[in-house]
UniProtKB/TrEMBL annotation:
<keyword id="KW-0961">Cell wall biogenesis/degradation</keyword>
<dbReference type="InterPro" id="IPR022956">
    <property type="entry name" value="Beta_hexosaminidase_bac"/>
</dbReference>
<keyword id="KW-0326">Glycosidase</keyword>
<keyword id="KW-0378">Hydrolase</keyword>
<dbReference type="GO" id="GO:0009252">
    <property type="term" value="P:peptidoglycan biosynthetic process"/>
</dbReference>
<keyword id="KW-0963">Cytoplasm</keyword>
<protein>
    <recommendedName>
        <fullName>Beta-hexosaminidase</fullName>
        <ecNumber>3.2.1.52</ecNumber>
    </recommendedName>
</protein>
<dbReference type="InterPro" id="IPR001764">
    <property type="entry name" value="Glyco_hydro_3_N"/>
</dbReference>
<keyword id="KW-0132">Cell division</keyword>
<dbReference type="GO" id="GO:0008360">
    <property type="term" value="P:regulation of cell shape"/>
</dbReference>
<feature type="domain" description="Glycoside hydrolase family 3 N-terminal">
    <location>
        <begin position="17"/>
        <end position="292"/>
    </location>
</feature>
<keyword id="KW-0133">Cell shape</keyword>
<feature type="binding site">
    <location>
        <position position="138"/>
    </location>
    <ligand>
        <name>substrate</name>
    </ligand>
</feature>
<dbReference type="GO" id="GO:0071555">
    <property type="term" value="P:cell wall organization"/>
</dbReference>
<dbReference type="GO" id="GO:0009254">
    <property type="term" value="P:peptidoglycan turnover"/>
</dbReference>
<feature type="active site" description="Proton donor/acceptor">
    <location>
        <position position="181"/>
    </location>
</feature>
<feature type="binding site">
    <location>
        <begin position="168"/>
        <end position="169"/>
    </location>
    <ligand>
        <name>substrate</name>
    </ligand>
</feature>
Length: 341
């Protein structure tokens, strides 16, 4: 059974019968994990084995694991600094900052892969304008060149561990003050004024670094009346103008920023029609059930193949093997150093 276009979540630290029933549905293609799904590395490894064992090809297991405020797995994992720490280091010593970013990317990805997680929604490519509390220190820097260079290094480190990546939140979430989890942000700038925001995407798409992109639940009325993830204007710009050929994820369709579109079926259809490949529905199992029961969609082969392209590459090293690796130990040391600054 091919992977479907929905990315759902699960209730707790082990699969329930209801979880299993949802995850074997043909419309589902993967799972997104949260802090509630994590107790310790051994438990998470067992949960991932159960999820992967449900179907062939195996469902993709994803997680928001950026560092700083957004790190779902903490006890038993290296505590990653907020990405702004890399930006501050870049201001002091750009070359050393790039090396540390690559080392952190390797730690991030290799620790997740060691317990069976396939990929993380990272890196954040939003610029830090000092306006957005929800982005804030999740941003690498205010300077688009610094964001581009540091993100490329992080992606290189993730790739060395065999993990794909997902740049977010296209075309830019750093300017708006409102949090799209609880409100509907509006960015009033013109397209010309947003050139800085899109510069990292242009560079990282051009050199083939980005494997996936997540649009923002932000409306840019100077260009289009829909939030970016529901907007053919923005998806076409990403595909046709920037030339992006990877996976486009919707942001969570349960967020308040998606509410302008209607109920869950209207949101899913709007994101799909706009050109998203994979639709996230988080923290609302009843909404997932509604979609599985009522939403009907034909999934083109190219979308299936794009999603399959996010499968991890190569054998994952065990936690014990990682501790014998100089590259891994270097990354752990950088995480500790940057976390103290």
């Amino acid at each position: 059974m091919p992977l479907g276009p929905l990315m759902a979540d699960v209730a707790g630290i082990a699969l329930t019968p209801e979880d299993r029933q949802r995850l074997i549905h043909p419309l589902v293609g993967g799972v997104i994990l949260f802090s509630r799904n994590y107790r310790d590395p051994e438990q998470l490894a067992a949960l991932c084995r159960d999820i992967h064992g449900l179907r062939q090809p195996a469902l993709l297991i994803s997680i928001d694991h950026e560092g700083g405020r957004v790190q779902r797995c903490r006890e038993g994992f290296t505590r990653l600094p907020p990405m702004a720490a890399l930006g501050r280091h870049w201001d002091r010593n750009p070359g050393e900052a790039l090396a540390s970013a690559e080392a952190l990317g390797y730690v991030l990805a290799s620790e997740l892969r060691a317990v069976g997680v396939d990929f993380s929604y990272a890196p954040v490519l939003d610029l830090n304008f000092g306006r957005s509390s929800v982005i804030g220190d999740r941003s690498l820097h205010r300077n688009p060149q610094a964001v581009t260079d540091l993100a490329r290094a992080l992606i290189r480190g993730m790739g060395a561990a065999g993990m794909a990546n997902c740049g977010k939140h296209f075309p830019g979430h750093g300017w708006v003050a409102a949090d799209s989890h609880v409100s509907i942000p509006v960015d009033e700038r013109s397209l010309a004024e947003m050139g800085e925001d899109m510069a990292p995407y242009q560079a990282l798409v051009q050199d083939g670094s980005l494997k996936a992109v997540m649009p923002a639940h932000v409306t840019y009325p100077a260009m289009d009346g829909h939030p970016a993830g529901f907007s053919p204007y923005w998806i076409n710009k990403l595909r046709r103008e920037l030339g992006f050929t990877g996976v486009i994820f919707s942001d969570d369709l349960s967020m308040a920023g998606a509410g302008v579109v209607g109920g869950i079926q209207q949101r899913a259809q709007a994101a799909w029609d706009a050109g998203c490949d994979v639709l996230l529905v988080c923290n609302q199992p009843e909404a997932v059930d509604e979609l599985l029961g009522a939403w009907r969609v034909e999934v083109p082969e190219d979308k299936i193949q794009r999603l399959m392209g996010l499968q991890p590459k190569g054998e994952a090293l065990s936690r014990e093997q990682l501790k014998q690796e100089a590259r891994y130990e270097e990354g752990v040391a950088w995480a500790e150093r940057l976390g103290q600054e």
